[in-house]
User: Which sequence fits this backbone?
């Protein structure tokens, strides 16, 4: 009995102490005990920086205000047209083509649009081309082509196909960077090329058109470069019998157009008079050309002992954390086994030596490579442009450099 009573008192005392401690805010007592465990933390990795040479427009007939484009040429069943182009001369002797941008428009509402393959081809100039374009001369050899699948932006029903009111303008970019197409060898001063925009689909979209730009300088509409043969364009149709190809008041030619892509005069004529030919447009023949922008690899043609050309480039950080680029080294692509320069696809340019080219800052001669100090931090997903700080020139040694003529010289970029 006494033992039981004693336990009860102890329990009651213990309870009352706990209550008092809680009310007074004092910390309760606790036992300590050793323990162990394991965990981990990952250290992130930095994505490789991406260095791209910046292109420059060598030919540009696009307008800054798309609403001022003249509707011109429809790839529709009524004409059977399927290819439009022009012979142009690029500024500064041309170069290696990187991209071509074409301004287009769409007159078709949502129900009529779909995924459309559009091809842009580049040709050497043809031997029979001229200002009169008699006999529909064809262009020269095909240099390369690129096809882009495009879903044009749809417009509302009722867009005016004569004036372009209510239509949706858009650009299509064709990439030629990997094809090493140099326009330097063509034309009296280099840089001449024929392009063709091909769209052969009469089922998916009946309202897709290539725009023609109004003249901006009163001579040919070009901002950069020139129209080689003003008053002529290249065109072909599916049937080979469609005359007056194009739209009301904006036809390309009064002649029947062949299935072969060829050059035609845009002079007015036909019956009734003035019903076809680009002279029917407000600015007259030769002042309206397709709205196209051709980019080259960023420099003019190099010639022995000639002026240096700037190598502009961008550095992009595709990672999710900032990255610092200490320097970028620009080099002439070189085959170390024989000293030959290489093209953009790492193929030897036989008997054209890399040592004939010098990469330099300003006019300070160095060698076939140069390291530019940057020490810049690029934010995640950011890009910096490096303009005017690196250049390349071609030396003029006392030996023939014919092996280099017309070649597309490769450049390499590396950073640390």
Assistant:
């Amino acid at each position: 009995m006494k033992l039981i009573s004693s336990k009860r008192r102890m329990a009651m005392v213990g309870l009352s102490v706990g209550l008092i401690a809680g009310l007074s805010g004092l910390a309760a007592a606790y036992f300590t005990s050793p323990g162990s465990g394991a965990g981990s933390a990952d250290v992130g990795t930095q994505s490789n920086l991406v260095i791209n040479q910046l292109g420059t427009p060598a030919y540009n007939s696009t307008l800054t205000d798309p609403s001022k484009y003249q509707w011109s040429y429809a790839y529709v069943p009524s004409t059977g047209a399927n290819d439009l182009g022009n012979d142009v001369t690029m500024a500064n002797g041309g170069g290696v083509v990187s991209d071509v941008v074409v301004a287009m428009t769409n007159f078709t509402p949502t129900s009529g649009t779909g995924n459309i393959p559009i091809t842009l081809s580049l040709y050497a100039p043809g031997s029979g081309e001229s200002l009169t374009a008699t006999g529909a001369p064809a262009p020269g050899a095909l240099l390369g082509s690129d096809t882009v699948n495009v879903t044009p932006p749809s417009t509302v029903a009722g867009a005016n196909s004569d004036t372009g009111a209510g239509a949706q303008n858009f650009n299509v970019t064709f990439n030629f960077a990997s094809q090493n197409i140099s326009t330097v060898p063509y034309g009296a001063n280099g840089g001449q090329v024929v392009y063709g925009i091909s769209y052969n689909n009469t089922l998916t979209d009946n309202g897709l058109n290539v725009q023609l730009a109004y003249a901006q300088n009163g001579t040919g509409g070009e901002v950069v470069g020139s129209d080689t043969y003003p008053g002529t364009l290249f065109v072909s149709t599916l049937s080979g019998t469609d005359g007056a190809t194009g739209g009301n008041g904006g036809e390309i030619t009064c002649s029947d157009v062949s299935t072969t892509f060829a050059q035609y005069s845009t002079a007015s004529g036909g019956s009734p008079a003035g019903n076809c030919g680009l002279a029917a447009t407000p600015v007259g023949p030769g002042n309206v050309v397709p709205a196209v922008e051709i980019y080259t690899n960023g420099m003019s043609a190099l010639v022995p002992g000639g002026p240096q050309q700037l190598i502009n480039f961008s550095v992009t950080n595709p990672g999710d954390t900032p990255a610092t680029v200490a320097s970028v080294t620009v080099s002439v692509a070189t085959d170390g086994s024989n000293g030959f320069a290489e093209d953009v696809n790492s193929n030897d340019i036989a008997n054209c030596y890399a040592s004939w080219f010098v990469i330099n800052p300003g006019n300070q001669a160095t060698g076939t490579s140069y390291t530019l100090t940057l020490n810049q931090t690029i934010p995640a997903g950011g890009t910096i442009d490096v303009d005017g700080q690196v250049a390349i020139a071609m030396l003029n040694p006392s030996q023939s450099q014919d092996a280099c003529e017309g070649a597309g010289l490769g450049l390499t970029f590396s950073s640390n």
In short: The first helix runs from residue 2 to 24. Residues 92 and 300 are 5 Å apart (CA to CA).
